[in-house]
Records
---
Amino acid sequence: MRERKEIVVGIIGFGTVGSGTAKILFDNREVLAERTGFEIVLKKIADKDTRRDRGIALPGGVLTSEADAVLDDPDIDIVVELIGGIRPAKDFILRALGRGKHVVTANKALLATEGNEIFGEARRCGVEVGFEASVAGGIPIIKVIREGLVANNVIAIYGIINGTSNFILTKMTEEKVEFSEALAEAQRLGYAEADPTFDIEGIDSAHKLTILSSLAYGIPLSFEKVYREGITKITSQDIEFASELGYKIKLLAITKASEGKVEMRVHPTMIPAEYLISKVDGVFNAVYVEGDAVGSTLYYGRGAGDMPTGSAVVADIVDIGRSIISGGTRRMAGIAEKWDKGDASGRIRKMEDIESMYYFRFSALDKPGVLSNISGILGKYNISIASVIQKGRRIGGSVPLVVLTHRAKEKDVLSALGEIDDLPVVSDKTLFIRVEGTEQ
Ligand code: HSE
């Protein structure tokens, strides 16, 4: 048999990431061939829009308006899905797998919600699905968890994995502006997803966390079980109070395991300002992974954009290409094996059962006895106060009363806040933010 020296690729979706991927495959062709020992041939790119200038000179016959031209081409080994969304992306992927083609995708929403079926189908067809680009763009975090840290039991993962909300929180912190102004700026700069709800309500982070959790803990992809809170309720006042207490507020995606149960949650979180991850600002992403053998590790980089995400897509193409050339595919089957089997419910900790430290901002009347009213209820639910700040005096009005707690049970916190918010001296619903770090 002739020794194979080429891997043939077809891309569906010539948008931002499609363009970045094509550019890398053309511009870095030589270095890729040198490193891998084979040529990656980009044979076709399908996109409905074949007219827009993406600034890339494609050889004649590469660009087509028909996805079928990629899916039906018997020469194509790897189909790269970069259109995003659920349909028709899912149909294209299933059709590619059914034809024995490997797939590379950046589609976090699709994998988080329909990935069990997709990975099951890939296993049945004996092909691979590469998805490095689906989480944290250019940061090779999938490779880190599956390969670099494979020796470890993962203790916890904390990620800043939505650049848009990190940009918004950074702007609110640095320029002391409110949420709506910072969001408008993110949209003006083109950072927010087409629907900004995905960014600001933590949906995009939850999609990515679903994938990280399954990789780390071998549970089926369970997006619907991720607890999720966005950043829309955070005010610049909370950011200032947090700063006075020595914390930054970040939208964190958290997954950790203890006593056989996995936590999966996305919410604004206060983290000590001196932690490295607190210094991750603007649109940058970072993922902290703690393993039982390796200890603490941190990965930082660009989580979006044509070239960083294209870098991850090309890494998957090379990985699968190497498997094809060496004659052994499904090198990664070990972890993915379980994803499409069974229900993860029994292994996921309910949100009310988690424990955390908390920041409360009460809107309370500035009257004698109010603090003791509030602290009495906290005490009744076993919630111990670590520090209190009250600033300013508004005669007849309410003032913010800020309390930081020691570690407490979420269930107790919700019950206590329910009672506190019913007190006649409390004028608004209490805002609370979970706090990470060591107890003070
Ligand atoms: N909207 C996402 C972000 C893009 O802000 O990080 C990358 O998934």
---
Amino acid sequence: MTSRIAILISGRGSNMLALADAIERGEIPRAELALVISDHAHAHGLTHAHTRGIETLVIEREGRTRDAHDTEIIRALEAHDIHFICLAGYMRLLSPSFINAFPNRILNIHPSLLPAFPGLHAQRQALDYGVKVTGCTVHFVDEGLDSGAIIAQTCVPVLDDDTEETLSARILAEEHKLYPRALKQIIDAKFEMQDRRIRL
Ligand code: GRF
């Protein structure tokens, strides 16, 4: 059976493209990219999605409460018969009703080795802290900030002369490999979850 995937973005959309490319190349054989939703009409990622012929929707957050916004998104996801949702640079916490509507079916990618450096500017947080290794994490989404069960992680070295830009670029290159791999593992259902420990 094919799983219909939706990707939620707010901006650049490079992880969305990495997922789209992997699906197009047949690397996630049981996935079909059905929909990209942006909460900003001017998100760059939307242009890339259009170019690829991927169906897109803009559901602006402006002027809506979080619950009203999420309710509209849930409606769109259900109307498109979506099985899995990938957040990719989607800059809003999801409401409990959103999470409960798709239990263990919402994934996110974050540019640090969680639980270190959740939230905004994870790469700058890593540099400021002085860690020698950081990375990226794909995790299930829960009601907290980057706090859901961890699916997969990749380590990236922090170099002495790194700036936020150079470190972010090194992490991003790994994000683009990790996200498709983690999505495939979850779709293939080759995982066990005990409390918050996932064994793939
Ligand atoms: C990525 O670094 C991702 O880990 C974080 O936001 C950034 C989004 O980048 N959640 P992009 O929009 O996928 O290019």
